[in-house]
Amino acid sequence: xxxxxxxxxxxxxxxxxxxxxxxxxxxxxxxxxxxxxxxxxxxxxxxxxxxxxxxxxxxxxxxxxxxxxxxxxxxxxxxxxxxxxxxxxxxxxxxxxxxxxxxxxxxxxxxxxxxxxxxxxxxxxxxxxxxxxxxxxxxxxxxxxxxxxxxxxxxxxxxxxxxxxxxxxxxxxxxxxxxxxxxxxxxxxxxxxxxxxxxxxxxxxxxxxxxxxxxxxxxxxxxxxxxxxxxxxxxxxxxxxxxxxxxxxxxxxxxxxxxxxxxxxxxxxxxxxxxxxxxxxxxxxxxxxxxxxxxxxxxxxxxxxxxxxxxxxxxxxxxxxxxxxxxxxxxxxxxxxx
Amino acid sequence: xxxxxxxxxxxxxxxxxxxxxxxxxxxxxxxxxxxxxxxxxxxxxxxxxxxxxxxxxxxxxxxxxxxxxxxxxxxxxxxxxxxxxxxxxxxxxxxxxxxxxxxxxxxxxxxxxxxxxxxxxxxxxxxxxxxxxxxxxxxxxxxxxxxxxxxxxxxxxxxxxxxxxxxxxxxxxxxxxxxxxxxxxxxxxxxxxxxxxxxxxxxxxxxxxxxxxxxxxxxxxxxxxxxxxxxxxxxxxxxxxxxxxxxxxxxxxxxxxxxxxxxxxxxxxxxxxxxxxxxxxxxxxxxxxxxxxxxxxxxxxxxxxxxxxxxxxxxxxxxxxxxxxxxxxxxxxxxxxx
Lengths: 338, 338
Description:
Number of helices of chain A: 17
Helix content of chain A: 40-55%
Oligomer: homodimer
Number of strands of chain A: 9
Radius of gyration of chain A: 22 Å
């Protein structure tokens, strides 16, 4: 019966692919960990040679490389593997656009473990793990800061072009600074900018290191602790909120934004960077999908639409917000006046 | 720098999608667990109504349904969700072709946990968990038998059409019978067939239940235990090996096949059902991808090409094998004469 029904109908291959999709996530992560893309870029293009350089079994490398070929990240001609265009650009360490380290964060076991009982999270409307990833000094945020830095750099560069005020003094608070990219990008464009990076103490070590590398360490100050509890200081011209509001629900964000407003100079502004889906919540795909990331890993977070973000700011006493794209980053800049 | 490089080049969206692909696997599983596809088929097509029937939070259902819309398994018009064609066919319990239960096996936490350190498995060439899923009476095989039964039925129906001998007595050994589908399909076509199902004792409870449902329980006998140790009996006309050889390496399979040959009548034959990739090992995609499933979950298993399977049989003393497709199943039937 089933055979007859299936033969004249859509193929279940797409369903199988979806149910095996977790293997793709972890295959990419393993290939990054084993430097497979870089080895191939260096000319190792057979199972034997890749396995030797990766100190891995030939069987394991053969299965990994065939799988990545099927998935379109590698090519295979006879027994010779090559890199697909985007793998060569983003996943080989020989490329200046290398962002492979994001795999080490995005496919982190602790993320995936958050989804092993996704059904319970859907019933509840948030993670069922005690604090998700939001507990104090959770080491995953050190990983975030280190591994996601290349992605932050993309948005940070676009952001700084909009909000830095070269030639004028600028006191900037970077909330949940993480890799420090956003504040540092401003410091590089504006020699009169003083940046105050706030984050967990262990994470700020990464921000400070990045400030040192960028040559702006003398203008990079730190505020360790929680954004909800720490003394954030006052008289800021600009407060940065990169990728932070999505972790919390509306009332929690309003509480935070009231603190932010108190720290601003009258006339100052807030630059929020977020994945912002359209009002239909299903486009653009990457931004809209981000709500699933928040459902699994936070108690109250979400991917907020522009109108929802605007409402949070107004509930905290701010003026209306405006939005603009941070192309080529998939993120949106929301600017809010005091 | 990064921004300039990225802007004129391929978009990293495909990489992001791959690194988030595990969420798709678990979203489908949750939607099956919460009967979301069935609720929509029954006319519940808003967040509120689906959440009510699924006894889940509106936020969780909204994020799940939007995510499945982005992924193409649902549709969304305004605030109204609908089923994509393949979701309606395969994932609604109102469909006679429902196979949604496969999600409960394929996205089983124990499978996914096997991949959390895939890099170690690639180094080693097999699972780093003690026995993968292959330990005695591992309850996952009871889940397999229950949840994968609709898929087994597809291949079983095609298989029985080839190997059953209606009008002649037929003593059939079904190794690793699981849901019992293959042997039972033969028993239904051939009233003179006597089926001997071998599997772990806990799994055989599922096979026997299926034989009872099919009305062939009086001709369904059981051989509990390991295929490598149990007394398999003798004088079989036909031995079935559905989805078993892929769990083991070549020498282990040769050992097993020698036992199989000893259990056969001279002139009898073996019907092996497997995911069989082409010799290039990267096509067809579903069959070729199966090697990754085996790398993560078994110590020595693989998706074997026809030539590799043929070699195992010949090393065990058999004649040359032949192969044929089991359309619409993605699996291949390998027939081997004594």
